[in-house]
Amino acid sequence: MGHLDYATAKKVVFKGLIILGVVTLAEVFVALFGNGHIIPGFYVHKLIFYPVMIALSLYKAYFIVYEFMHMRYEVKGLAMSVLLPTLLLVWAIIAFFQEGASWGHRREVVRQRNMEPVEEVQKAGDTGMLDERTYQFQ
Amino acid sequence: MATDTALDHHSDVQDGNLWEGAKEPFKASYGKLMMWYFLLSDAFTFAGFLISYGALRFSVPTWPVPDFVFKTAPFGVDEAPLIFVTIMTFVLIVSSVTMVRAVQEGHRENKGGAAFWLLLTIVGGASFLGCQAWEWNNLIGTEGMTVTINPFSSHTEAGVYLSGEELEKAGLQKVEADAHGTTATYYLQPGKQDIPQNRFFVKADHHGHSLAGTEFAIGGHYLITKNHDTHLYEFGAYKSEEDGQIRTEKFGPKAFGALFFFITGFHGFHVFSGVMFLTIIAVNVASGLYVKRRNGYEMVEKMGLYWHFVDLVWVFVFLVFYLL
């Protein structure tokens, strides 16, 4: 703060209101347009829809942090000490979303195995006991 | 030239001895710096919540469709997807803008201006909380969503909802049982035990209108809600178009309600705390407390950082719950 004169600073605030408002309206428009609410039966493919939504939100986040929270006018060391740790979230997002997808696959495997018909297999000489070594190891 | 040399020497000393203490390498006060680091830690808390939402969403084949779930607005407006939450977002953006103005007036040591814009920010924050109260009330009271019950589901199987007559024609027996003072009407397949899992209900939406005859195709987005008025329509009977078999319908991922209430609740709690602190600081500004500190109303600036952070978090809550 104090890097801009008062009149310019007031204009930046007004510009911020317009930018955030327009980006929000654009997001809602894309959400409704992409899900067939504006043209019935017309859907935007998710591979286009999701990146557009995420990009618009990230722009809003950038604008709030850099203009409204004055990160642009702070010393570089301060900005980096706050912003760089958030890069850890890139790992967290990739790791946990992949883990979530894995839970889904496992659940589907369990569901399909549960539907498999059970066959009774009784080999000659099978006492129904496991191998002796199995008990020893446990 | 002697003055230049002296100046150069002075600045060299300052740059070279940052570690001697009493210097501010980040050119920010302790309080402001610590507010930034608090917000960083808070961002990780919110990220933890939102990432767990994402992980659970990735783990199930279907998820409630936001533009169907959030389609009601006050004054009886229905079928208006995302409109009310857009208004809520605007309220928060405007309150963020008034906060920037309060910080600017504070820098100019303008007591009246800072107090005025802080007051508008409080009004904005309180309005947002009011909107959220309405939204929660609607989801709990009308739609029947709780921490453990998710009444919304998107569908992956093809089928058509059946009416009561069609169920009876298919050989099911009509049962009228007393349930909390009202009559529960459901249908049982012959020879099946009368337990909740075996009961077929006629499907109705949350207004109580029958959904009999409604068709749905594989992979389409449909909002399936249970009738909350009587708590009776927990399962809908529908038949698959392929084999004509009558099936019950499972509701969507159970975690949706808990995730929604905890994440928007945690954000709402931040807004609530923010409104409390804004009120205290507005009173302090109006009483002239910060005039004596002569630091450009730094407390207003620190509060501004917190308030913009609340807006920042809402950008991502809005993204994951309402837009994606």
CATH C-level class of the largest domain in chain B is Mainly Alpha
| Class inferred from helices and paired strands of chain B | alpha+beta
CATH homologous superfamily grouping of the largest domain in chain B? Cytochrome c oxidase, subunit III, four-helix bundle
Q: Describe the largest sheet of chain A.
A: none
Strand proportion of chain B, as a percent range, falls in 5-15%
Distance between the termini of chain A: 68 Å
Strand neighbour order, sheet with most strands of chain B: 4-1-5-6
Mean pLDDT of chain B: 84
| Most residues in contact, chain pair and counts | A-B, 50 and 58 residues
The succession of helices and strands of chain B, N to C, reads HHHHHEHEEEEEHHH
Order of helices and strands of chain A: HHHHH
Helix/sheet category of chain A: mainly alpha
Question: What Rg of chain B do the Cα atoms give?
Answer: 28 Å
Give the domain tally of chain B: 2
The total beta strand count of chain A reads: 0
By CATH, the architecture of the largest domain in chain B is named Up-down Bundle
Here the CATH topology of the largest domain in chain B equals: Four Helix Bundle (Hemerythrin (Met), subunit A)
Task: Give a short overview.
Chain A is an all-alpha fold. Chain A contains five helices and no strands.
Write a structural description.
The complex is a heterodimer of chains A (138) and B (324). Among the domains of chain A are: 1-69; 76-100, no CATH class. Chain A is 68% helix and 0% strand. Chain A is built from 5 helices and no strands. Chain A has helices at residues 6-34, 46-68, 76-83, 88-115, 132-137. In chain A, helix 1 packs antiparallel against helix 2 (46-68). Chain B has 324 residues and is an alpha+beta fold. Chain B has 2 domains: 25-148 and 256-323, Cytochrome c oxidase, subunit III, four-helix bundle (Four Helix Bundle (Hemerythrin (Met), subunit A), Up-down Bundle); 154-250, no CATH class. Chain B contains 9 helices and 6 strands. In chain B, strands 4-1-5-6 form a 4-stranded antiparallel sheet, with no helix packed on it. In chain B, strands 2-3 form a two-stranded antiparallel sheet. In chain B, helix 4 packs antiparallel against helix 9 (298-323). The termini of chain B are far apart. At the A-B interface, helix 1, helix 2, helix 3 and helix 4 of A face helix 2, helix 4 and helix 9 of B.
